Amino acid sequence: MISSGYVRTMARYNSWQNDQLISLLLDMPADELTKDRGAFFGSILGTANHLLCGDTLWLSRLDPSMAPPFAAPDQWPRLHDDARGWATDRHRVDGKLHRWADKQREIDLVGDVMCKPVTRGTAFSISRAMAVVQMFTHQTHHRGQIHAMLTAAGQTAPISDIIHMPEIV
User: Which partner from 84, 115, 117, 160 sits 20 to 30 angstroms from 167, CA to CA?
Assistant: First the structure.
């Protein structure tokens, strides 16, 4: 289904996208970042916080040596109340994701992952490859929401097409 090369490419793509968001969000006024824009997680920062927690959760499922998010899911949008705290944590988690991705071999993408739901519900099993795809598509989905909110806020949203990622070739 996927390869270790896909995992490394997507980890690079994730960092590239987040680096662009970090510089933009750090320059935005706090009231613009936290303004409720009618998105599922409310604000730009709320959505960025949710994405950060989601990445941490999926990484903890894929690598049990990593800790799951420390806040209940309904608190995820409020994980950080400013861009600086979010950016610091985002950079730290992206580093963990890179180190994990760089260690992946084809055999590491085989088998299943047992997932404990973050809310009530029954634990479920998913293939490792599908769990990896879920993590990366979840990132892309929520960054798309952030992109739309930034555009609506009059900001110039960062370029997101993977074909424009530096060193794609």
Answer: 84
Alpha carbon 21 to chain centroid, angstroms: 12
d(CA 138, CA 98): 17
What are the tens digits of pLDDT across the range 64-121? 888 877 667 666 667 888 999 999 999 999 999 999 999 999 999 999 999 988 777 7
- Look at the alpha carbons of 64, 67, 71, 74 in this order and tell me if their dihedral is positive or negative: negative
* Angle separating helix axes 44-62 and 4-27, nearest 10 degrees: 150
Give CATH superfamily name and number for 4-163: dinb family like domain (1.20.120.450)
Position 168 scores a pLDDT of 62
